[in-house]
Amino acid sequence: MEKSGNLKEIKLLLEKFTNAHGVSGSEDNIRDLLEMEIEPYVDTIRKDVMGNLIATKKGEGPSIMLAAHMDEIGLMVKYIDDNGFLRFVEIGGWFDQTLLSQRVIVHGKKGPIPGVIGSKPPHLMKEDDRKKPVKLDDMFIDIGAKDREDAENLGIEIGATASIDRVFVSLANGKVTSKAFDDRAGIVILIEVMKRLSKHKIEANIYAVGTVQEEVGLKGAKTSAFGLAPNLALALDTTVPGDYPGISKNDSSLETGKGPVITVADASGRGLITHPQVLKWLKETAVENKIPYQLGVGSGGTTDATSIHLTKEGIPTGTVSIATRYIHSPVEVLDTADLEACISLIVKAIENVGRYFEASS
Ligand SMILES: [Zn+2]
User: Are residues 112 and 63 in the same domain?
Assistant: First the structure.
């Protein structure tokens, strides 16, 4: 009973956070939502210089930083042409082709403005060109404006961000789809972990941090980790599974629905090589509590853990991720059972952190 109740709540939270918009550098909406949701479960809450939200649950014992990034990949207006079409740069790592024909929301100074990403129609393309990918430079945002002045009157200015206009939808078998599961999934895990830990005394001091600008260089994690100087840290994020057509087990051995992913190394070791004590702590906790998990060795992306573990004299750091199909696209897919298992793993790990780590000054 309790489990399905939890799952329903988790889904509602995920829906709320993925339907909201916050491109890197413009995380205000997400931060406000996070503050509202996490506030009942922590002792103090504050925003730092960069815009990170730092929520603290005080306790005697090791200090743990849990980091989930608030930002999502998006676009930024670089130029409004004479006819009122918006030219843009990408903020974060898009596969350009997924942007074609998408609806977007441009975040103007007078509020959100709907638009679409247009390009030359196939009718007017030469046979050869139809087989080629459309270049980003040939795409533009059409908000229906008559000309530049009209666009400006609608509140659009250079530097306005735009994000994908997609809402959360449930698929079969506990799977769900939306934009921005990367990393609103991590934000939801952060909230649920703090909620469950709020019910009893914990032998640890926990910093739950919603970080900014992860997708453009792991920036908020870097400054917040420096300021907090925790005894250990975990990044909560999403990662690439290999369980759909066009990708093989050799590309990724991970699967959706098989439990949270404990990173052993990412970006072929150039990002994070997980601290052995963190790895031992997470693996033993999963085994002892019969929580399903997968071990991840990646050759591609990194997470906030990459910048956190190199802070000051070094911080033992790990990453726990949710396997997410079509990551960095408008139609990301994950399995909600993985969220529940991930929350359980983090809660249990924090409850027995004293067996693995000491508080140090
Ligand atoms: Zn991410």
Answer: no
